[in-house]
Design a protein that fits this description.
By secondary structure, the chain is mainly alpha-helical. It is built from seven helices and three strands; from the N terminus they run H-E-E-E-H-H-H-H-H-H. Helix content is 68%, strand content 6%.
């Protein structure tokens, strides 16, 4: 599916599924989204998947990759300046972890929060249930509850509790968009989605049956040759 230039930074989105137990997804600046199969333990339907893809799409719409590059240039310049002030490098070694803690990590968390917000509205605009976003992150929180997670202030991502609280704040506005026009628009689109899913399932079943038929025919042919 191609997107409007102002929404997709000018190029169509492509999607790659990576077979891995890792529950993750990421996007490259060229609008290429990668989804690890491990995330499907938390993603149960199209609405859930739309929440994940909306979040990754939002990173590119907000130009987060460019902001990270600009931020890293500034930090590198300041790091070099510390060497001018203190050639021994002591100030430099103190500056780098401080820059990570006070600049890089907070900005990374801000990017994730912004992507959560934009992604929520992207899903609603496309007629996917916005409440799925909270459902996915709640499932991820439950799935990771047995493992240890670092405190938020030393993490690249907000805590699950922060994200779930944010969704509670944003969902009324997203649901208003989802139900715009008395819900007529999304009712029509979701019915079309259902028909498309049914057609895709039938086509997949047909291809699978043809595959098995071809395999059985080939096997029977080899057996006849062997008997003769």
């Amino acid at each position: 599916m191609e997107n409007k230039p102002e929404e997709s930074l000018g190029s169509p989105y492509t999607y790659t599924v990576i077979r891995s137990n890792q529950a993750n997804a990421f996007v490259l600046p060229n609008n290429h989204i990668f989804v690890f199969t491990g995330i499907f333990q938390f993603v149960r339907n199209e609405d859930d998947l739309a929440a994940v893809l909306g979040h990754e799409t939002a990173h590119n719409i907000a130009r987060h990759a460019g902001e990270r590059v600009s931020g890293s240039i500034l930090i590198n310049m300041l790091a070099r300046f510390t060497l001018l002030l203190d050639p021994s490098g002591v100030l430099y070694t103190l500056f780098l972890p401080a820059a990570t803690l006070l600049h890089d990590l907070p900005h990374s968390r801000d990017h994730e929060i912004e992507a959560d917000y934009i992604g929520l509205y992207l899903a609603a605009e496309a007629c996917y249930d916005p409440t799925a976003a909270k459902r996915v992150f709640a499932a991820m929180k439950e799935g990771h509850s047995k493992g240890s997670t670092p405190p938020e202030f030393i993490s690249t991502h907000p805590s699950y509790d922060t994200r779930l609280s944010n969704f509670d704040t944003w969902l009324p506005g997203a649901m208003e968009k989802f139900h715009a026009d008395d819900g007529k628009k999304c009712d029509i689109i979701r019915k079309e989605m259902k028909i498309a899913r049914q057609k895709a399932a039938m086509e997949a079943k047909r291809r699978e049956e043809e595959k098995h038929y071809a395999a059985d025919s080939s096997k029977a042919f080899r057996e006849r040759r062997y008997d003769s």
